[in-house]
Amino acid sequence: MSLEGKVAIVTGSGRGLGLAYAQELAHQGAAVVINDMDETAAASAVASITDAGGRATAVVAPVGPTETADALVKAAVDTFGGLDILVTNAGVLRDRTLWKMTDDDFDTVIGVHLRGTFTCVRAAATYMRENGVAGRIICIGSPTGQRGNFGQTNYAAAKAGIVGMVRTWALELKKAGITANAVIPVAATAMTATIPYFAAAMEADSRGEAMPAFFRHDLGFGTSRDAAGIVAYLASDAAAGVTGQAIGVGGDRLQVWSHPEPVVTAYHDGGWDVPALEAEFPAVTEGSLQSVGESFPPLPEDLQRPAPGR
């Protein structure tokens, strides 16, 4: 599998999961537009790719406004000659219980996660459709959007909404050959580092050691690198037939989510890197990829109406 000649945008890619996605896409051959609000983080992310022989540039701007979405597409086209892949990862947290959550807490999270995903996908899909690009849209969700989580009304609403939009876009973009999928990662972050339950996993990772099997296998909890392979896979030609899906990944575990339960679970020792995905993903998911849109039975004859104009 190769992404040579492809151009990708990854929002919120100055650090953490977003940086892992950008680095993996670059490792597979794609040129990458980095995005972050922190100029230093963005510059460091670009350097991590270019120093390894890849191609990258940065757009330092907050995700949410249409102007940022347009600037990201313009940077991809002007710098690298086109756009094939969009990964929407940018996010922010304002965690509070319902009765303590302010309007600003809610609007800020919705604005970055949900509106930011919408504006960036709209800009990218418009370019792809107008230029005949069979592109790849990959939106980052969360288990919170699938299950809910105490103190995260705003985040749960945004992440659930992203999956709903992805399924809608899969329908709308199918004719253009553009796929739209959501990735639901479970990985070590700055937030999980503060939770005592994950301490052993975080300590092992900080020492450069593999996390205990309980975390990687039983919980499907791993590093940001473990979540990057699925993003690169979905961005490739190998995944041309995969669209409208919510795909969970973490540690050694891969899942396809339905509403609201996963319908298939598979494990691969050492994690789901790109070679493992390329070799096993079709067989693992065969018969388990979810349908898109509602399915209606044929109307009874006495309820059928002539088509307009007839």
Describe this protein's structure.
- The protein is α/β, with parallel strands linked by helices.
- The chain has a single domain (7-187, 222-286), classed as 3-Layer(aba) Sandwich (Rossmann fold), CATH 3.40.50.
- It is built from ten helices and nine strands.
- It has a nine-stranded mixed sheet with strand order 3-2-1-4-5-6-7-8-9, sandwiched between helices.
- The protein is globular, with a radius of gyration of 20 Å.
- The N and C termini lie far apart (51 Å).
- 48% of the residues are buried.
- The model has no long low-confidence stretch (mean pLDDT 91).
* CATH domain topology: Rossmann fold
Residues in helices, as a percent range? 40-55%
The CATH class is identified as Alpha Beta
How would you name the CATH homologous superfamily? Answer: NAD(P)-binding Rossmann-like Domain
What structural class do helix, strand and pairing data support? alpha/beta
Average pLDDT for all residues: 91
The overall strand count is 9
CATH architecture: 3-Layer(aba) Sandwich
Strand order of the largest sheet: 3-2-1-4-5-6-7-8-9
Domain count: 1
Which residues sit in consecutive blocks of at least 5 with pLDDT less than 50? Answer: none
Strand content: 15-25%
Cα end-to-end separation: 51 Å
Region (Disordered): 289-310
Protein name: SDR family oxidoreductase
Family: Belongs to the short-chain dehydrogenases/reductases (SDR) family.
GO molecular function, one term: oxidoreductase activity
